[in-house]
Structure formats: structure tokens, C-alpha cells
């Protein structure tokens, strides 16, 4: 009969295996981490660091001013308006995208013929180039020969100069953003719908629940983890909306459709006000993190409730 290894030898083998696995993981992850540090990590930290300096123009010498740029940010209406516009516009885009995506996911979940083809169609806007699709979008909105204005002319109406109206500019930014994001949201909702246990629907049907009852008492509670994830990620992306504004309105008219990321772009690459660009970036990062944490805590509040302590029963003799 063979003899089992002593406990010390077994522990040594486990440590050796862990060290070997750790070394392999380091070799695999180190190049990726280094790449991230060079391409994204260091530039991001350097951009935040610039927020504490007065630096206008590449030939200028940076001058440390502490929180001066941050004070100027909240005292200047251009920046506060852009920040507020980013928040409410991002919230509006997120709400409409998630609602439209949920409706599309319900349709995708039906037992239809060729449903894979329909799902692909819904997702096409998410993978198309924003530059290309916004240019096609602008063709429809052209003042002289745009499709929409040609239709209006055919009915004897005056053409609309979209670029001169902030309300229309916001409207088309929202429409394009929802069209762009609904496919991705729908697929995530669909994954959540298909993860709900069918037994729960059968139990609800036995209890007399109809279609709306199943949706309210089975589907929506089962989608809560997915809803938390998709809400946070969609809101973070929507608050940082930029390309749509750049290619559809370019911030006009008179800056009335500017959002904070567009303002950061203007400061950094047009005006070379690197200090304000860095300060605005740091403020936006803090606000996005705070909003995400607050929503996560609110959405998971019921899951983290502590149980009511049970008083011990006093025993008698």
C-alpha cells in the first residue's frame, strides 16, 4: 500500500501550484495592464492633474492655481448649463432607450419565425459608425434639399431651419441617441427575459395571473439585477453624450445644445485651455460616479435589508 504525503508536503505542493498559477496570471495580465496604463490610465490621471493648473496654449507655462479652475467652473454659466444639460439630457435618453429596448425585447422573445434575423436588424444601429450615420441623418435634415423639408414643401409648408432651433436640435439628438442605443438595450433585456425561470410563469398561471400579472409579479422582479446593470451603464454613457452633439448641432445655436463633454472638447482642442478641460473632466467623473453609486444603493436597498432580530424565548423551569 502506498503512503499518503505528509501534511507539510501537501501544503508545499499547494503553495507551489498557487505560485505557478499566480505567475502565469501575471505574465498574461501584465502586458494588458501596461497597455491600459499607457493608452488610457496615464492620460486620464494626467488630465485630472491638469485641472489644478492654469495652462492656456501649448507654448504657455503651467501655473499651479489649486482649485481655481473648479471655482470658475461653478461660477461660469456656460459650464453649469452644459453640466445640467448633460444630466437631464442623459436621463431622458436613458429612460427612452430602456423603455424602447424593453418593448423590443418583449417582441424578440416571442416565438416568431426568423427571430434571429429580427434581432440582428435591431442591433445594426449599435455597430454602425456614428460619423456615417449622423451624416445620413443630416441629409434628412438639410434645410434646402432635406427629405423632411421636401415633404413639408410638398404640403405647402415652409421649410424648417433645424440649426436655428435649440428645441429641434435637442429633439433630433434624443431621437438619434435612442435609435443608436435601443438595439443594445434590447439584447440585454432579452437575456434577462430568457433567464427568468419558466416554472414561475406556470405557478403564476395556476394562481390566476394573466399576461399583465405575470409581467408585474414575475418578469419585472426577475429582471431587477439586469435592470440595475443596464440602467447604470446606459446612464453613464448617456451623460457623456458627445458625438451626436458634435455632428448634428455642433453645440449650436449659440451653445444652447452644448453638453459638458462637448465643452471639454472645445476647451482642450479648440481653445487649448487645458486647465479648464482637466477640471471639467474631473468634475464630470465625480458626478458620474456619485450618480452610479446612489442609483446602485437605491436599487439594491431592498436586497440589503437586515432581517428583524428575533428575541430569545425565556425558558422556564
Search tags:
2 strands, MetI-like, ABC_transporter_permease, mainly alpha, single chain, two-stranded antiparallel ribbon, 317 residues, flat, transport, MetI-like fold, transmembrane
Give an overview in words.
It is a single chain. With 317 residues, this protein is mainly α. The chain has helices at residues 7-50, 68-75, 77-108, 115-127, 130-140, 147-154, 166-195, 198-206, 211-222, 224-239, 243-248, 260-270, 274-299, and strands spanning 53-54, 63-64. The chain has a two-stranded antiparallel ribbon. The radius of gyration is 27 Å and the shape is flat. The chain starts with 6 loop residues before the first helix and ends in an 18-residue tail after the last helix.
CATH superfamily: MetI-like
The dominant shape is flat
**Count of DSSP H/I helices:** 13
Strand order of the largest sheet: 1-2
Specify the helix fraction band: over 70%
Q: List the secondary-structure elements in sequence, H or E.
A: HEEHHHHHHHHHHHH
Give the terminus-to-terminus CA distance.
58 Å
- Could you tell me the number of beta strands? 2
> Structural class of the secondary structure composition?
mainly alpha
Q: Which CATH architecture?
A: Orthogonal Bundle
Estimated radius of gyration: 27 Å
> Under CATH, the topology is which?
MetI-like fold
CATH class: Mainly Alpha
Main sheet attributes: strand count, strand direction, barrel closure? 2 strands, antiparallel
Strand content: under 5%
Overall pLDDT metric: 84
Q: How many structural domains in the coordinates? A: 1
| pLDDT < 50 stretches | 306-313
